[in-house]
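look at this one:
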Amino acid sequence: MNRKSLITISWISFFIGIFIFVFFSKEKTPQMLLLNIFIAGLYTFVLSLGNGFVNETLSKRFSWVEETRKRVIFGVIATILVNVVLVFFCNYVNFIIFQKQDFSGFFEGNMGFNNWFTINVALLISAILHAKSFMEEWKKSTRKEVVEQKLIAKSANAQFESLKNQLDPHFLFNSLNVLSALIDENPDQAQRFTASMSKIYRYVLEQKDKELVTVEEELDFAKTYCNLLKTRFEDSVNFEFQVDEKEKKSFVVPLSLQLLLENCIKHNFATAQKPLNIRIYSENGYLLIENNLMAREQVKESAGIGLSNIVQRYSLLTKQNVFIEKSKDFFRVKIPILTQKITAMTTQPSHESIAYDRASKRVKELKGFYGNLISYCLVIPFLIFVNLYTSPNYYWFWWPMLGWGIGVASHALQVFGIGRNWEEKQIRKILEKENLKK
């Protein structure tokens, strides 16, 4: 316990001692004033230090965030046991040692009532300390979650933008290389290629800033791009499209087919006698680009933008992998077809966002429970005091104490009960099914 807490406890002891001296003490002497302040300090320091020690010890052993249920269960058990012992100790010092009363009446009559009443007050103090500890721990946790979410989102967005920005100059550079070759080989084809390239480049500019496009849009663009390649290579390259109609409304990353088609051309030689056959088809939720393998020697090292760009962009959008298969006869790339249109900002931290939302909801539930418990601990002792002061022969306080107590117990079961495990399991199952769909 820090210095500030000790000063606070000292002031509380001082004012409680004065209050008891003014309103309840029969002897108005300086000695009695000091005795009341001392006894108030005895109760305040013993109960506060004892409960503070229990609270700090439990918080070190069990986290409010990670082990909430254990923290509450052990907290309730330890708090009740410790407070009963501390209250009996303080009352023994007060009544038996200072007031010289007979120990035989310690658990009955006025001393018995004082024991019971003081235990309730001590439990109230402990509940406040535990609630304060709980709120501080969850505030730290939520602040940390918010900071982590911002960092993840910024990092993912920056990385995604960087990858997309590779596409524009990359496509332009490769298209100009093709055009340069055509100018020498066939000027008329070069002119038609230039006109077609302007249309395709417009698509590149429109789509490169999007996270996802429909399979249908990407196929239409790929067919136009294949016509360009046909213009240059003529019968040396053949293209085949076999994509299910039901897959065309789903989504892929933009310009993925263009990059993969370009990859096929760049790494394979093709002649009219031995044409390069490129097939684009769908299978089991994937879009496949396959070509017969006729690898050419690389004069210079590849920049590696094509495949790595696609793999990285998909990794930022989904947990589904891009598969690359190679044999002596073929080379195949499988890219996932996504069923939901998502964005880089929401897909990468999806599990963290869900956890954060659930944590926020959990905080509200626990705040409601502790508010209910603290209210109960405050109001019931007051009602007992009013009952015993106004009508000591009829104990009506049992009715609100039992009725409200059942409500508090029901609230505790709702917040910490067995049903919550079932609910969390169902939520987990639903989330896993949604992830599999992607």
